Predict the structure of DUF3450 family protein.
Amino acid sequence: MDSPFNTATPDREVFVKPIATAANLLLCLCLLIACPATTAHAVEGGDVLAGEAGVARSARAAGKAGAEAEQWETERTALMDEARQLLFDIESTRFAADRQEAYIATEQKTLRDLTERLDAARETRQGLEPLMEGVYDALIRATDADLPFAGDERQTRLALLRKTLDDPDAATGDKLGRLLEALRMEAAYGQDVEAEDAVETVDGAPMALTVLRVGRLALVRMPASGDWVERYDRKAAKWARLGDESAREVTKAIQIARKRRTAELVTLPVGTIGELMPETTEAQ
């Protein structure tokens, strides 16, 4: 059977057109009703995608910021460590500089003291040379005026002293040391008692004698027989014969000096004050 929509009669054609128009309107209405929902879903889907993209961008930005912050923190820590090390180095350098300044001040003071001492030593040396010469001359005069004992020993010592004083290469300390040693030896002669055997000329002939020296007070000699005793007269510069009463005391003194007798008081002929100190007597 033919479809009513396929009729070609005018009446049917008139009837189909309103129906087609209504169907089109209904379709349009359905589309209009469906479009807002579809549009809403489309808009909502776009917002989600945009939000996800924004979140991703924010995440990437946050990650980059975190990395930068971590790098900055590392650099800050390194800079702080470097700053602390620099402060420590500065304090160490300042301490070392202060210590060095103290050392320098001490060395400068020591240098000034040494310079002053050196100047004083030069002045002392300049005045010491004439002083030593004066002491040497006085020592020569004292030796010549002294009792005639230990002649070779004393003359040898004085000759060596003179040679040292005349040596331009000898240090001033060596010269002074030799001079003081000579003075010490001469002073020691006045503090001991000595008896020795010797061969001396008596009345133009050599004779074996015992010579007793009592410090610098007296020089006495006597033969082994003990027949006589002679004392050296410092003022007359010769030997003088003593009385027989002196022989016994001299013999006792010789035995004591040689440690053959217990020490005791003895009376010896030392001479008068004028004989012992002729220069003082003449001055008076």
Notes: Residues 235 and 277 are 8 Å apart (CA to CA). The two ends are 199 Å apart (CA to CA). The beta strands are 193-202, 205-214, 218-223, 230-233, 238-241. The mean pLDDT is 80.
